[in-house]
Write a structure and sequence with these properties.
This protein is mainly alpha-helical. It contains 3 helices and no strands. It has helices spanning 4-34, 57-66, 69-88. It is flat and about 45 Å long.
Length: 98
């Protein structure tokens, strides 16, 4: 069980990171609007899904907090399939390990 102090620190960390990402998104959209060549990524694009992207725990918590129940279920089901595949294929994650 997590202590009250640790839970409070985790809550503060989530709030701080959410504020940071809110500012980042605001600045990102300002930059995108002024970018002359345009940005290729868009809703529905799956190119980044083929890239190994690192994620720190605080980022994962903020991301998880932003999901709807339906989205969370879909992510969970997908993670279960990936885990099953990874367990059946020992070299699956070899290229992603440091």
């Amino acid at each position: 069980m997590i202590s009250t102090d640790a839970a409070q620190q985790l809550t503060m960390m989530r709030q701080d990171l959410t504020a940071i990402y809110t500012r980042y998104e605001r600045e990102l959209y300002t930059w995108i609007a002024s970018y002359e060549r345009g940005v290729s990524c868009h809703k529905g694009c799956s190119t980044c899904c083929n890239v190994s992207v690192g994620l720190y725990l605080p980022e994962a918590l903020v991301l998880a907090d932003s999901l709807t129940e339906e989205q969370y279920s879909r992510v969970f089901e997908h993670a279960q399939r990936v885990l099953a595949y990874a367990n059946d294929t020992p070299d699956y994650l070899e290229g992603f390990r440091y």
